[in-house]
Amino acid sequence: MTDRLTEAELAALRALDTPTVCNALEEIDSKFRDTGFTTRPLVCPFPDLPPIVGYARTATCRSVHPGTRKGQTATDFRVAYYGYVNEGDEPKIAVIQDLDGPHVGHGAFWGEVQSNVHKALGCLGVVTDGCIRDIPDWADGFQALAGSIKPSHAHVHAVDYGCQVMISGMIVNHGDLIHADQHGAVVIPMDVARQVPAAAARIAAKEKVILDIAKGPDFSFEKLRAAMLGPKDIH
Predict the structure, then answer these.
(1) For the residues of 1-25, what is the DSSP string, one character each?
(2) Three-class SS of residue 99?
(3) Rg of the chain in Å (alpha carbons)
(4) What distances in angstroms separate CA 52 from CA 18, 61, 105, 153, 161, one per listed residue?
(5) CA–CA distances in Å: residue 186 to residues 69, 92, 93, 177
(6) Residue 169, φ and ψ in degrees, nearest 5
C-alpha cells in the first residue's frame, strides 16, 4: 500500500526509536540491512526530543559562493520553496543536502529563522549533512540532525527542491517516509510501513529473554548459554 498512514499508524512508529525501526525493517526483509539509513555520524543537539516521523520535503543548498539568482528572482525562488514545503497537511521532515563537496557545512542554512519558519510550515525537524547554528534560539521541539554546527551562514542559498538527495549515505526522494531521532534517520518504504510495529514487537519479545537474564539479580553465564543455545527464535 502506498497511501498515507493514519495518525494512529504514525503514532505507532513514533513510539519506536530509530535503531528499532532499522531492526524491524531487517526482520521484514534482509535487504534493508544494507540500505536506506544514515551511515555517517550526524550531530543531534537535542537528543532528548522524541523520535519524529514524517514525509520528506527535499532540497539542496550551497554556501561557499554566492547564488546565481539575484533580486526578485531570488525572492521568488525562496517563496516557491516555502510553498513546496507548505503543501499537504501531513507531518513533514525537511531533508536538505549540502552540495559544496569538500566544503560541506561552510555556512548554515539552518538556524533560528529557518527552524521556526519550517516548523510553522508543518515540519517536525530537519535532516541535513550541512551545518546548523543558533542552537539556543532554535524552534522549540524542532528536531535536528546535521553534519556540523558552525557560526556563519556565509553565502548559503537553496539550489533546488523536490529533488532526490543523499544525506550521510541515505538516499531520499520527495514524499519518502522518514523516521529520525538522536541516532540518525531511516527511510521506511511505504509498502512495508504498516508491518514495522509488529516486526518490532517480535524482535522485542526475542530480546526480552536475553535481557531478563542479563539484568536479573541472579545472572549466570550458564543461564545465558542455555538461552542462547535454546529455541532459535531467541535473539
Answers:
(1) --SPPPHHHHHHHHTS-HHHHHHHH
(2) coil
(3) 20
(4) 9, 23, 23, 26, 21
(5) 33, 14, 12, 8
(6) 85, -5
Nearest residue to 17 via CA among 46, 52, 64: 52
- Nearest-5° Cα angle at 195, 189 to 199: 115
Nearest to 85, CA basis, from 61, 119, 62: 119
Neighbours of 82 (CB within 10 A): 15
**Strands 170-172 vs 157-161: parallel, antiparallel or unpaired:** unpaired
CATH of domain 7-196: 3.50.30.40
* Domain assignments of the chain as residue spans, ordered by start: 7-196, 197-228
Give the integer Cα–Cα distance in Å for 101 and 106: 10
User: Which residues face 108 on adjacent strands?
Assistant: 131
- The tens-digit pLDDT sequence of the chain (235 residues) is 358 999 999 999 999 999 999 999 999 999 999 999 999 999 999 999 999 999 999 999 999 999 999 999 999 999 999 999 999 999 999 999 999 998 999 999 999 999 999 999 999 999 999 999 999 999 999 999 999 999 999 999 999 999 999 999 999 999 999 999 999 999 999 999 999 999 999 999 989 899 999 999 999 999 999 888 876 555 5
Max CA pair span of the chain = 73
Measured between its terminal Cα atoms, the distance across the chain in Å is 30
Q: Which three cell numbers, joined as nine digits, stand for 186?
A: 531511516
- Residue 46: phi and psi, rounded to 5, are -125, 65
Beta bridge partners of 188: 177
Residue of 220, 180, 199 lying closest to 93 (CA atoms): 180
